[in-house]
Amino acid sequence: MKKFIEANKSYFLSSIVFTLVFLLILFIYRLDLVISIYGIVLYYAISLPIVVYRYSKYNLVIKTLNNLKDNSFEEDYNNIKFENNQLERSYYNLYLNRNKQLLEEKERNNKLYKEQNEYLTMWVHQVKTPISTISLISEREENNEVKMELLRINEYIDQMINYMKFENLSQDYVFRNVSLKKIINNSIKKYKLLFFKKKLFVDVNIDEVDILTDEKWLSYVIQQIIFNGIKYTEKGGIKIYNEENNPYILHIKDTGIGIPENDLQNITKWGYTGENGRLDKNSTGIGLYLVDKVLNKFKYSYKIHSEVGKGTDFIINLKRREIIKN
Predict the structure, then answer these.
(1) For the chain, what are the domain ranges?
(2) Which one of 59, 193, 245, 285 is least enclosed by Cβ atoms within 10 Å?
(3) Tens-place pLDDT, residues 132-168
(4) CATH assignment of 172-317?
């Protein structure tokens, strides 16, 4: 309201001047007081709708200009009307021209994003064929070294595929009751060669409990956490268990190098690798970013406790804050 008054100072000042002049005439000519008050009240009664109208128009102009400042997009700008004066018409034309540029830029970016997505999708499908062939050869020759490298390659390819899919995640999940123990066991089985290679133990103590979830995406989350645990653990291993009093609270706890305190608040940001990432040149900073996005999308809260030199405990509450079942 204060800014509105400042923007319409001339209008309010003229009203005050008019009132003072009217009162001065009343005093000089000794006019009837009742008639004079009636005239003033009538003037302000007529002025009030005008002030309300100007205030609503003012708010619309401010909102419109804020949209421009925030790079917001609207499909139909013709519905936005400015006051009918030269200054605000100039602002309006500036607004329309700027938003036209923004919409053209958005269209170019969308086209570029679509082309990149199509190329990456094609590349992934093309590279999967030779990888499958190498995998068959390694199975035949029982070459564990090749198998482990293939596992890592597949891990990073799957990470990229899931990153590409995440924009349309709502089209790619189905909720149903799934055994948590089954998801954990399948995830561990996937990395058995890495556990064996690094001589790490895996201790699983999971009560039989069904989780209302999308099996594929929850499996991806758990696999990412286990894979990170293996990657940054040289001695000891990984313990996976749910709490006795609340089986929906899942712990994935490793005895690895731990995460520095100053990195904990940033490790789920896109592309952030932190101090540990500098130790592993292949770190992408995308894995935990996707873990965070999927858990938030599915309304699963989580915490990460970590101590440098002692390990990390990733805790997930699998009791959804909102239950949605297809």
Answers:
(1) 2-72, 119-167, 172-317
(2) 245
(3) 777 777 667 676 777 777 777 877 787 777 777 766 6
(4) 3.30.565.10
